[in-house]
Amino acid sequence: MTVGRAALSNLIGGIGYFYGQSRIAVPSNLRVDISEQYWLYWSSALYTAVPCRSKFSWGFLWDEGFHQLIIRRWDKKMSMEIIGHWLDLMNIDGWIPREQLLGEEARNKVPQEFVLQHTNNANPPTLFLPIQDYLSTFSGDAVSNFKSEDRAFLEASFPRLQAWYNWFNSTQVGKLPGSYFWHGRDANTDRELNPMTLSSGLDDYPRASHPSNDERHLDLRCWIALASKSMAVISALLGKDTSKYDSMVKELTDVDLLNKLHYDAGSGRYYDFGNHTEKVKLAWRVWQDPMSGHIRRELVRSVDGRPRPRLVPHFGYISLFPLIMKIIPANSTVLRKHLDMIADEKLLWTGYGLRSLAMTSSMYMKYNKEHDAPYWRGSVWININYLVLAALHHYSQEPGPYQNVALQIYQQLREGLIRNMVESYYDSGYLWEQYDNAANGRGKGAHPFTGWSSLILLAMAEAY
């Protein structure tokens, strides 16, 4: 109760009103002058929660969807207003800047390379999480709960949600039908062990070693499946044609197509696909500074093997997205394999929650650059653990041969996650950005992190 109150009150206390202009990177093909690095977005107002008032005290698009899962249950109208503010930041193409650095105060806290927002780069459409949660209150016999204020909110939101959805399906699609990939990875870097995928929200989670347009990113495909389901329900509630969204739901939940694009039958795991080699490392390069004559050294990326098109063999949070989005059928042996892998201590299981990357991965707890500590390469993150809990809870209630297994794993995961966060709170006084997957589950990173780490409250309440 004490930790739950702290989680909720600090999340609510972090809601703020911001005003200013984002800086948008000028596309190289539209740059008139080499010195013209950015354009100013229009002056925008944003009413939003923030992840961490002491370190990340501005709006983050993918974080906000998780925040609203909680705020929606506390004050539905406030949540509607916040979601509306985010949708109003959309440009004519349907793109929303992923970080809202509205003013000098916010920009001064951010390294320069992260200030400019790129109009080709996406961010997970997590606002569909609270929207889906909200829509579930009108399902089946509960359709009578659909009031005039709900209709007004959906009528106002629908054109923007439709534009956002269409933007994803015109700019982020892959070469094969039903495939998608995150843009913005640096194919020319010689400093990063694995080029970052900041647009995915999972930053340094390992993807294909050599970025290309041939990549297929599993998590993005699953996010679009979620968005398609939500758009179909909204269309039906508003009396609009649902055929387009119904067709997309059918395609993106087609397990045979999913398996063709992302499934490794040998291991029973889902993976990304791309141009990849495991023979990549960081190595010291020694050189002489021509200006000073001093000998210097730096860590650079060394590739010792030829990359080839293949599934990318890093098992972790990404691999769980078909389960998270409940795409795997309840009677499928693939589900049983995933339940077994979730509970395997050599892979993702810890007494403190699921680690982000399996201990068997070649990238487990590896630095991405000399001074870039591992981020999504092993630590326990609460937002993804909450989504996994929601999926396990679903499968524990869905008729099928693995109900009891799903229930047992659900109960153990929930208990360990809550116990560790409560104990850590009493030891340190904080909720943390992430939790160590080995050293007694201690809190790490930014604190007090009462953004998505506050989802522990919903886990306590078993509200999914």
TrEMBL record:
InterPro entries assigned: 6-hairpin_glycosidase_sf (IPR008928), 6hp_glycosidase-like_sf (IPR012341), Glyco_hydro_63_C (IPR031335), Glycoside_hydrolase_63 (IPR004888)
MF (Gene Ontology): Glc3Man9GlcNAc2 oligosaccharide glucosidase activity
Family: Belongs to the glycosyl hydrolase 63 family.
Keyword terms, alphabetized: Glycosidase, Hydrolase
One Pfam family named in its UniProt record: Glyco_hydro_63
GO biological process: oligosaccharide metabolic process; protein N-linked glycosylation
Any Gene Ontology CC annotation: endoplasmic reticulum membrane
Protein name (record): Glycosyl hydrolase family 63 C-terminal domain-containing protein
Pathway: Glycan metabolism; N-glycan degradation
Keyword Oxidoreductase attached: no
All copies of domain Glycosyl hydrolase family 63 C-terminal, residue ranges: 2-462
Regions that span the bilayer: none
Domain of life: Eukaryota
